[in-house]
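Objective 1b: paired records.
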Amino acid sequence: MENYTDGGDSTSFPAILKRILDKVRSGDLKLRRRLSQHITSSPRVVKWILDSVDKNVEVLEVGSGTGILTYFLCRNTRRVVVAVEVDKTLAEFSASIVDCPNTVIIVGDILEIDVAARQVVSSVPYGISSELLAKISRSNSVERAVLILQREVVDRIISGPGSGSYGRLSVMVRLLFNVVPGPVFPRSDFYPRPRVDSRGVILVRKRLYDEEVALIEDLTRAIFPYRRKILGGVVERVFKLEREELESIGLDPNRRVEELGEGDLTRLASFLRSRGLL
């Protein structure tokens, strides 16, 4: 395993980090706040990711950035690493840092590219967190994802019905994946420091995105803008459905939308579909 803790040689984490920071601080390499560009500056972040990936499965890395994670990732996996970076300048710089025969760095926007990899790894740019999670969820080829996200996004993913953070993202991700929350990484683990802390999360697919899941997604899109409202009033407003009809499928019309679990949403989506309302 490549040395990512000690500072004794040019391949250590501190040595690679210094090469990158020297370029940034000298002004030769500019990080763009608009693209949420930050450098992973703590070896514990890299170690957690390396410990969490399946080393026998190819990796799609979203955002090679300055290449510090890619450098250690490609040297600690037995398969190909494909990194997609939207910033051409950073892609070229990261390629010079990584210099690894089993790695390909592509310039492109991951949100516009078909995701066909079995495993996705990323310290996710904050600006695309929700969009990337939705894309991974809908990409049935993705069996495993090892991600660093804003702490509040992970909190939303792991929250259950009735909690303040529960919403469409919670429903979608938990419907499709077993979710394993990881450690919290303080903002001091990144450079320049972001405004919020981050947290790791591992997603392991448990079911495919299919017509039923798409239907539930359509339902949550329609009713979760009113998540704190009473269910009976919401379905009456959105679908012109009488409250008594909810009772006929075992749903309490006096519950709030945010209290609906996976089974409730599945039952309601199926009923609405049978009535031609969804």
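Objective 1b, second protein:
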Amino acid sequence: MKKLDRKKIYIYQNDVPKSYEARQQFTDEVTKRGYTIVDSYDETVGLITCIGGDGTFLRLVHACDFPTSPIIGINTGHLGFFQEILPEDISGFLDSYEKQEYTLQSIWPIDAIIDTVNGTYQLRGVNEIVIRGPHTHLTHLGIEIDGSLVQEFYGDGLLVSTSMGSTAYNYALGGAIIPPQLDALQITPIAPSNTNAYRCFRSSILYPANMTMRMTPIKRSCGDTLEIIVDGFDYLYEEVQKITINRSGAGLHLVRFHDYNYWTKLKSKLL
């Protein structure tokens, strides 16, 4: 890994007027303090500044191929779970950054290995990975955790979320909220079938993040095209043989103030 240059900053933002104003404010402040703003990300960047909301953060992470540099989020969006400060906090943040009065919160994405008849593909997600049939097709999947068959699922699809992603689409589906300190992944069903022919779990399954989860198309889904959605990015794969999901070994590092409290943020954003 290359050495980070703390004076080198990369800025990523969305296109709303409030974000342009925050970018100008941030740029003026760091320029006065002798920092350099670069046009593109590389591994020597000492700080990534993400201006926008949670959607902007996810686009940044995917655009920069899951960067290793610390990320500070300036919230100009709605929820802002990943973002740490507001535009009016920029000067105070830079004071703390220069004094190194902050911590780094590491969050761990998940990887999906998709084995198809035509090849093997890999996807990585921060919040979640969704597996479903195309359009309105129901999906029949065998679910294994560490080699043990858990269930033959039949329904619209399955969502696998990280602890940080538990408050996103997972929460909308009725999944559990998991604090990031809990090292777990979560499987949440999407419109599971419950008939005399098929009995599927209707609530989330939490399991240790160091275990391997595998989904295999079975019965009527054998040879089908599957739609896989990663943090809102949509992919189609034909003739899927199996999908293997593991926690990624490549973490993201978010800048947090010493008074950061997950439960306080959760209450202010959702509860």
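The chain has two domains: 5-107+251-269, 110-247. The CA atoms of residues 129 and 179 lie 18 Å apart.
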